[in-house]
Amino acid sequence: IASLGIMPYKERKREDYMNNAQIEHFNKILNSWRGQLMQEVDSTVVHMKEEALSFPDPLDRAAQEEGFNLELRTRDRERRLIKKIELSLDMIDSGDYGFCEDFGAESGLRRLEARPTAVKCIDCKTFAEIREKQGNA
Description:
66% of the residues lie in helices and 0% in strands. It has four helices and no strands.
């Protein structure tokens, strides 16, 4: 969140979890992050259009295409991340944001600041990763 210019949330004593101030804080983080990613997507399109010159040298053309492929893979990852951000924003609207999708437990403010699109508490996520590793071993 520091890269977005947003300070971490300062929790007050005996404050309810996912109160209006916290919801507003995470809404701001998610919308800023989505906006930043969308700008990067737009700049990639502009960059690729500007750079899409026909190089007569096959090595130059191949290097350019490899660079474009790398950019497109990065943008594809960002596109999937934008979908997760939008899902998180939908969860804010429905009142489900900040709670583990498996058990409904609080995910925790620090976890959400580290991973604003988290849908599981740290315990469930850790358990899922262990099961995944065992399945792939």
